């Protein structure tokens, strides 16, 4: 599926995109970003929780798209420092709250934060755990958006023998997460071949 978009990038956006490219930092692809920003504009969330800050690119873009507040979790010290610096540059330090913690251990930091949207873009092998942990905070009719659902097309590749053992394990876990989402009676889920694969799950 080819998704057209009218994304516009300011100087900081382009700086972050270049940094990510030069330093092999995985940030959301343009097609996926367009989809994510559309969800933000449709949902108009007061509070978003993001699992996987990286350098703060998607958190900054979600604020620009209309989110009032973003809580975002990052465990890598270098990425955390870059994100703090970039959020300050963007002028959003009062609206983007960066939590330096492993997302599997960070729930106590946000347990009292009610959210309208959860965005998962972190360790692919842990998506099901992230979903289970943080959807407890979703308001009624909240939504969950997940990136990298196709994992560079490997999820659709049925020939697992062509992959390394580690990649095979990730692909299997992502396939299990697909099944988990689509069979979850508490959510209506659709998975789209946009960017690196985007899923949206709407709380019933």
Report on this model:
The chain has seven helices and seven strands, in the order H-H-E-H-E-H-E-H-E-H-E-H-E-E. The chain has 204 residues and is an alpha/beta fold. The protein has one domain: Rossmann fold, CATH 3.40.50. A seven-stranded mixed sheet has the order 3-2-1-4-5-7-6, with helices on both faces. Strand 4, helix 6 and strand 5 form a beta-alpha-beta unit. The longest helix is centred in the last third of the chain and has 18 residues. The two termini are 27 Å apart. The model has no long low-confidence stretch (mean pLDDT 91).
What is the CATH architecture term? 3-Layer(aba) Sandwich
Q: Low-confidence parts lasting 5 or more residues at pLDDT below 50?
A: none
- The Rg value, from CA coordinates, equals 16 Å
CATH topology: Rossmann fold
Structural class: alpha/beta
Strand order of the largest sheet: 3-2-1-4-5-7-6
Count of the domains: 1
Can you count the beta strands? 7
Helical content, roughly?
Answer: 25-40%
Topology:
Blueprint: H1 11-22, H2 30-43, E1 47-51, H3 57-64, E2 69-74, H4 77-90, E3 96-100, H5 107-110, E4 115-120, H6 127-134, E5 138-146, H7 165-182, E6 187-192, E7 198-203
Parallel strand pairs: 1-2, 1-4, 2-3, 4-5
Antiparallel strand pairs: 5-7, 6-7
What descriptive keywords fit this protein?
Rossmann fold; single chain; 7 helices; 21% strand; 204 residues; globular; alpha/beta; seven-stranded mixed sheet
